[in-house]
Amino acid sequence: MFDLKKVVRPNILSLEPYRCARDDFKTGVLLDANENTYGPALTTLTEDEKSLELNRYPDPHQIELKQQIIEFRNSQPNKFLKDFEKSKLKPENLCLGVGSDESIDLLLRCVCAPGKEKMLICPPTYGMYSICATVNDVEIVKVPLLYPSFQVDISSVVDKVVKDSSIKLVYLTSPGNPTGKLLAVSDIIELLEKTLAANWQGLIVVDEAYIDFTLDPNSKYSESVSTLVNQYPNLVVFQTLSKSFGLAGIRLGITYSSTDLAYFLNAMKYPYNISSLTSNVAKRATSLDSGLHIMAEYVANTIEQRQLVLDKLQSIEGIGRNIGGLDSNFILVEVLNKEGVPSNEVAQQLYNTLAVDNEVVVRFRGKELNCTGALRITIGTEQENKILIEKIAQVLKAINK
Ligand SMILES: Cc1ncc(COP(=O)(O)O)c(C=O)c1O
């Protein structure tokens, strides 16, 4: 039987969450938190800033924001959700962080004892998992994504975690970075069910930073597995407002998990990690009557531009295949040498010349597993994409002369 008490570290199980006087009393003459009650040290304040009472500590719980986020996700559940009324998301399933980067670190500290326990990643993948693991002295076990599908090698992951009970977390990314490939939901379900059946006391984490680029506005369902956290106690999902919502600057990450695990994550987090400015913007962005429509428009534009960029790039001599998927706001294209073979040397030369002489910055990913010669290119605006294509064609022509 899966037992969360065997997953969460003993010191966290016994943690008493920080309580402030404001948890009990919210109005009146508030002289309980050593704030500056005269106001912010600013010469001017916009009306919005005034209403936010920036001299006061922010709300530690953010229920209104959480409610909006779950309404949005519940409106397009995953098709594997069995009993919507019983299992739909509640605000208590969520923990908000300073971007997903904080969520990744918080979960690691909740579950993995430094120097003793391990986490599993599937390269090529997002670099922060390893950085957080190293900072926390948590050993990393690697099971590469299958190549060329960039899907999870389910049997190898199950085999590894079942044989080594010190592995407590499996980090998956869907759609992947740098692969841009959505993981098959049926694979994720298989992994959840097989590891539960094997009595593995650990968590499957799905980082869905780019999931909104797969949303189909005409479907009842979405590919996101965030709505499945009440169905699978061993599932954790991360999302962020940094990508589809265009709000990387406000730093807002969302963790979805069972309410029991979310309780511990909320007990661990710094009480005031989400600033009043951040939650104000996040509430506007996730509201049904404004932000969500704009997000959907951005996603539609990105998808249209992604195909145009790819078509144009592939007509340039020296650009090879898109080796990743088309499920995200970037592509992963091979750069070829004169013999038509993917080449890190040429890719790096192209990358450097674009950045240094042409002020076009993309990402060299050729050193990642099975990504030889690859550049990861974010899809920009129509104007930016035109410049990108022009410059790539020019620089490659010069390199191949
Ligand atoms: C897979 C993945 N997860 C998380 C993040 C970081 O998200 P945030 O900006 O919310 O910290 C990124 C950013 O590139 C990412 O690619």
CATH topology of the largest domain: Aspartate Aminotransferase, domain 2
Please write the CATH class name of the largest domain.
Alpha Beta
The CATH superfamily of the largest domain turns out to be: Type I PLP-dependent aspartate aminotransferase-like (Major domain)
Identify every distinct bound molecule in the structure, by name, code or SMILES: pyridoxal-5'-phosphate
Oligomer: single chain
**Uncertain stretches:** none
Helix/strand order: HHHHHEHEHEHEHEEEHHHEEHEEH
Question: Level of helix content?
Answer: 25-40%
- Radius of gyration from CA coordinates: 23 Å
The tally of domains stands at 3
Main sheet makeup: 7 strands, mixed
The appropriate CATH architecture of the largest domain is 3-Layer(aba) Sandwich
What does it look like?
- The chain has 401 residues and is of the alpha/beta class.
- The chain has 3 domains: 246 residues, Type I PLP-dependent aspartate aminotransferase-like (Major domain) (Aspartate Aminotransferase, domain 2); 30 residues, no CATH class; 107 residues, Alpha-Beta Complex (Aspartate Aminotransferase, domain 1).
- The chain is 37% helix and 13% strand.
- The chain is built from 14 helices and 11 strands.
- A hairpin with a 7-residue loop joins β8 and β9.
- α6 crosses α7.
- It is globular and about 75 Å long.
- The N and C termini lie far apart (64 Å).
- 40% of the residues are buried.
- The mean pLDDT is 96.
- Bound molecules: pyridoxal-5'-phosphate.
- The site of pyridoxal-5'-phosphate has 12 residues, from α6.
- Pyridoxal-5'-phosphate (PLP) binds next to α6.
